Q: What sequence folds into this?
């Protein structure tokens, strides 16, 4: 049985009878119906879906492989066309994280120790019944930082590990920001290791579904804040702006890194179990008293990055070189 580029192999007819419309039907299709099926990307390459991995953003994530190369595993992200998250991510891969721009940037920044982004291996769309889906193919990396910490029961990271991870993140963000894009969702789950050596310097920033264009030259002043009962990004780590309806700017990515650093050092955040309104309140209190907080938890070594996060104006670039140089000094 075939729907456009999708081959559904040996799926029980009862499954199809149960598929009507709505979230339950979509969930069933995404977690059951597509396994052992083929999707053909826009370049004609066939990919075999092997295993449902997890839910990410508005869609689902699968382990897969290219036809005739079963040992080379990839990740396929899939979502309904009515959602825009994956469309945004594909756009970032096609227009920002492309080889020519990366090579040009590396030739300009010859002192970068490590700079690596996932490569888009394919993308496409297909129909299933009255629903239309979009998919993206990227490399499969060994493990995320979050899962690595969970696997080895690590509540905290060492000073050297934090400095190396943060330095690589800032190198990556500088490239992204130079190309006028904000990541807007930095967290341990969106940081992966390049390989099974688990080198803290060789980490990769993934998931660009919330990334957006931010052109400083067109920003006259910061927009007015207003409370939203929600946020753009992940509640624990998103910037204060993300809670107040203000479009995230470049320094907001640095603010997100700061919250991650604080958690990596202390094992927790003051707002881990609070609602959005209380989270915003606690983040504002943290911003006001961050120097005292850093002193209490013996984190004054990281004062420079928190100061950049909280003192850089909305329509300016953060001081990347200052942060990178200071981080390098901390672990060498």
A:
């Amino acid at each position: 049985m075939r729907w456009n580029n999708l081959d559904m192999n040996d799926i029980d007819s009862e499954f199809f009878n149960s598929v009507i419309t709505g979230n339950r039907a979509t969930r069933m299709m995404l977690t059951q119906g597509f396994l052992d099926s083929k999707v053909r990307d826009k370049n004609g390459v066939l990919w075999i879906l092997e295993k449902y991995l997890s839910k990410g953003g508005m869609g689902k994530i699968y382990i897969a492989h290219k036809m005739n190369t079963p040992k080379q595993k990839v990740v396929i992200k899939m979502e309904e066309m009515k959602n825009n998250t994956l469309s945004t991510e594909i756009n970032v891969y096609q227009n920002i994280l492309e080889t020519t721009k990366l090579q040009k940037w590396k030739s300009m920044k010859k002192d970068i120790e490590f700079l690596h982004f996932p490569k888009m291996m394919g993308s496409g769309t297909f129909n299933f019944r009255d629903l239309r889906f979009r998919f993206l193919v990227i490399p499969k990396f060994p493990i995320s930082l979050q899962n690595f910490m969970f696997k080895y029961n690590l509540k905290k990271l060492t000073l050297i590990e934090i400095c190396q991870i943060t330095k690589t993140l800032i190198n990556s963000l500088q490239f992204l920001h130079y190309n006028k894009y904000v990541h807007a969702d930095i967290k341990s789950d969106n940081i992966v290791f390049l390989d099974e050596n688990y080198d803290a310097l060789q980490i990769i920033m993934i998931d660009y579904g919330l990334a957006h264009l931010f052109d400083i030259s067109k920003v006259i002043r910061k927009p007015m804040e207003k409370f939203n009962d929600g946020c753009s990004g992940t509640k624990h780590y998103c910037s204060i702006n993300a809670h107040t309806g203000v479009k995230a700017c470049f320094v907001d990515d640095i603010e997100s890194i700061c919250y991650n650093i604080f958690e990596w050092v202390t094992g927790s955040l003051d707002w881990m179990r609070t609602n959005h309104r209380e989270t915003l309140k606690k983040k504002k209190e943290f911003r006001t008293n961050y120097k005292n907080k850093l002193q209490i938890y013996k984190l004054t070594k990281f004062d420079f990055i928190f100061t950049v996060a909280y003192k850089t104006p909305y329509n300016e670039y953060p001081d990347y070189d200052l942060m990178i140089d200071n981080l390098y000094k901390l672990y060498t």
Remarks:
- The two ends are 60 Å apart (CA to CA).
- Residues 1-22 have pLDDT under 50 and may be disordered.
- Residues 145-331 form a domain with the Transferase(Phosphotransferase); domain 1 fold (CATH 1.10.510.10).
- The longest strand covers residues 69-80.
